[in-house]
Amino acid sequence: MKRLQLPTAMLGLTVLLTACPQPPAPDATVSLTVALTGVTSAPIKITNTTTGAALFDGNLDTGKVFTNLTAGTTVKIEPGAVNGFTTPPAQTVTLDASKTVTAEYKALSGAAVQATRIQGAVADLPTGAAIGVLGNSYEVDTNNEVAVSSSGLDLPLTRAPSSRLSTLLPTGNSGCQATVTASANPNIALFTEVNLLSSKMDYLGTVTEQIVAGGTMTGSRVARLYSDRAATVKGTLTCPASNSATLTVNLDVTLTAGWNAVEYASGQNQLTIRTLGGSARSTLKATRAPGAVSIALQKPVEFTSDADVAVAAQIYQDGGYTGEISLSTNVPGLTVEPKTVTLTAANLNSQAAGVAAYLRRLGVNPQRLDTTLTFRYNGSSNLSLTPFQIVARDASGKQVGIGYSSVTVTRPGLTVSLFPSEVQMYPGDTRDVNVTAYGIGGFTGSVTYTLTGLPAGLSAQPVTANLNGSSFVTLKVVGDGTVKPGTYPVTVTATSADKSATTTGKLIVNAPTISVAFTGYGYSVSQGETTSIPVSVSSSNGFSGTTTVTLTDLPAGVTATPKTVTVTPGASTQVMLPIQATSDATLGNATIKASSPNLDPNAYASPTVTLSVRPARVALPVQSSISGVAPASSGLWVASEGSYDPSKNSYMFQVTRVSSAGDTLTSASVAGSYSVRLISTVSGVLALNADSSAPTVSQVTDTGTVTALPTPALGNVTAMSNSTDSQGRVWFIQSRYDAGAVTFSLNTWTPSTGAISPVNLAVSNFSSYGTQNFFFSPDRKQLMLIMPGYPGSIYRIDTATLQATKVETTVQATSAAVTNSGAVWLSAYSTLSRVNSDGTVTQFDSVSSGELLGFDLKAADVLWGRDSSGVYRVDISAAKPASTFVSLGNVKGAALNAEGGVLAVWSSDYNAPVSVSRIK
Question: Is 645 helix (H, G, I), strand (E, B) or coil?
Fold first, then answer.
């Protein structure tokens, strides 16, 4: 045969194909072995994934081999659940050859949580534990108990608990608030632990059920909750806690009637209770009770003579405590016998009724030693003490227990007390310490009272008095002025021939002090200025030396410079305390105090005085006092008091227009007699010589030009407007005496011509009020005329048409303000009123405005007024107007400022310069 020659590449491929496994023949068979680990039997399901046919579905013991399976078949092996073990994952394999699959089961930690059973091994089980009962921090359940074995605990919950049930959600006045959704409000009892007792009912420790799987909170445990009905509750409770905090309880439970297992977690003022899922598992862990001793006396210890007192007692051995203990008390002179007691398991008596604080709730007989304790009191004083302590210590002196009772000593003798028990004095004082004494058991006799514990610099002489029933004596404490201030414990001892009694108190020696006082009734400072306030400083209680005085409670923007002053006993020293006000210091009145670190702390009240912070002011360039003020188109017109000018054979008055900064804008001299009345015009001011016999008038323009005007025939003027109206006229009321009667008329005066024209408006019984009866709107087209009286009359007059409209009201008014549109406000005394569009009048009580000046020329919702000591700013934008008073002192006059606010002329003190302030 001829040999084929193959290429080298083909030779390599042939070798590889020969070496690779070949797929089984179509009719080949294989086997599947399924093995188990961790368990000996488990439910297994095996499915042919191609056909969907089940090869096996049942319980598999140890393992199984499945043969005669067609090669290439793909199968899925699905292990089932086995109680107490993890379930292995499903596996899918292709049987290209015989294969083995292992299902590995692993034991779960802990045991499944059961709602009606607590079962399992207990870690750290105390030796001697024999009985287990449900418990919590304040009660136990005696209806469900079980014997405890060395192998663990098995407590079935078959009966309702012995404790009284309470509602889960708050009712009545519990102080708790609930934000929950609930199908019902069940009555429940909650237990968080199992209490371990010995066979003789000695408390040995607790068992808690810790969650190891299926919980939702770190460190949570299983609690048993008994409910008298089914309920679903979800939400939050907030309740007051004992530490004055708030306890928050988070609830998310679905309860069945009877016993329920719930997840329980507690923290700082937090408590959470949730329903446990079916997969929850837990372990049991014991906490041993510390060995301790508690002592209970069957009755109080009462001494009525010098004889010893024997009292039946029980000594409880908590936690199975054994060993020798020594007994003592915390009362000086009170001893107990026997001094030592040996506690052993052999001498425990379990037949007597239980009274231990914890176990008495069980209603069972705890371990204890019944004995008799004998008390002896060798003190000399009677006493009553509740409670006193009986202290138990071990051989090393460590306290291992305690008991409480009361002791009274009422042997024939006496008792003493102080009233008050705390006496205060100064180093140089003499003070009384009042002592009350009572005889006991018929005691009578002479008693000497002595005060001890006094520091150097204080002394007290003993006092002797006869005691027959009761006695009151006074011990005088005398200071020589050298004692150091401080608090000193003192003791009063009452001593007779064979009896004595003591009581204690405190003697407080206060440091010497000073007293301060303001030497005036009130002070003021303007923004941006500095002034001084005088304060008188005097020695009190023997003070001598230096002290620092300052002012406190100052308003914002005002500071005071402290001053150090030397104080001499028996004398007073005045010190001037500088105060400074910033340019934006808060305006108004403030009550300030004078203070010193040496001020008497027991003084009834600190000295106070009123400080008025006033607006910034600028001195006016006038040489004498002010006789008149009027508004100007810019700034303010001011007339100074006149002086006689021989060259003109007349009194001359200086009329000056000043700016809000106090600068002179215009100045002119006008003739007059005794005074000059200023009347504002559109472009200047009228200077009216008010001499009714020879009236003269001059026009002073804004530029300072003075023009003499025709002499008006004014007659006897009883009231006149302080500005001209929109027609350039002055309004006034004239009185005449005719045919034995006085009549009044309303008139206008045109200064440029001197013409007098009557106005057809009846004026009768007129009496002028204050400084003004005429009040113009800003455009001078509306005029309010107030004719005082009871009830008086109020008119609104159109200055163009001379049409007068009476305001129909009995509301009193002494001043008015009117807007260009005719809105009217009235003021009288402490009441501000508004005339409404329907003619009604609304009164705002206790809203003060003084004499109204008018509406602010830049702020429509602000109304201004004045009185003799300041100005009022009234905000009428709110439902009820708000009035703010700005104190100024002696107000000479005020007028609305064209740039907004008010310009006020004032002097605050005697001989002080006349100043102008702008108030916004």
Answer: strand
Q: Of 357, 308, 905, 251, which is closest to residue 637 (Cα–Cα)?
A: 905
| Distance, CA of 243 to CA of 224 (rounded, Å) | 27
Parallel/antiparallel/unpaired status of strands 221-227 and 231-240: unpaired
Other CB atoms within 10 Å distance of the CB of residue 616 = 17
Q: What angle do CA 643, 648, 654 make, to 5 degrees?
A: 40
Q: How far is the C-alpha of 341 from the C-alpha of 363, rounded, in Å? A: 27
Q: Other CB atoms closer than 10 Å to residue 465's CB: what's the count?
A: 16
9, HSE (Cβ side, Cα atoms, 13 Å)? 0
CA dihedral 645, 651, 657, 658 (to 10 degrees): 70
β pairing state of 608-614 and 522-526: parallel
Spell 177-196 as b/e; 16+ CB within 10 A means b: ebeeebeebbebbbbbbbbb
SS3 847: coil
DSSP conformation letters of 735-781 = EEEETTEEEEEEEEEETTTTEEEEEEEEE-S----TT-SEEE-TTS-
d(CA 5, CA 2): 9
Query: Tens digit of pLDDT for each residue in 347-372?
Result: 433 322 223 333 333 333 345 678 89
CA–CA separation, 712 vs 724, rounded Å? 15
- The model's pLDDT over 401-449, given as tens digits with 9 standing for 90+, comes to 899 999 988 888 888 999 999 999 999 999 999 999 998 878 889 999 9
CB neighbours of residue 157 within 10 Å: 23
The phi, psi pair for 19, rounded to 5°, reads: -80, -30
897 CB-near residues (< 8 Å, 6+ apart): 631, 636, 660, 857, 903, 918
- Please state the φ and ψ torsions of residue 603, each to the nearest 5 degrees: -60, 145
Q: Is the pTM of this model over 0.85?
A: no
